[in-house]
Amino acid sequence: MQFISDQIMLFYTPESAKTKLGRHKPDLWIVTEDMTSQPNQPWRADRTTPVILITGNPDAVEIKKNSGKLTVLSMPLSIVDLRKTVEIYVS
């Protein structure tokens, strides 16, 4: 992921992501389980951008999106799996 590190943006709340991004859409959302319980989640409204969800319990989290654009990775997270998944979406 080093080749895209200058393009990575980190947000602690969905509202800060919406404020910073404005009308622009990212190439990929990487979302943690705790973010899915917060209000105004921009990745839920974005029906085209892929989402990688990192969760401790993949069966407990539901995101209604195009299933081809959602990848769920379980904790503990393998950095190799994360890297491969990111490369699929951004290459």
UniProtKB/TrEMBL annotation:
This is Uncharacterized protein.
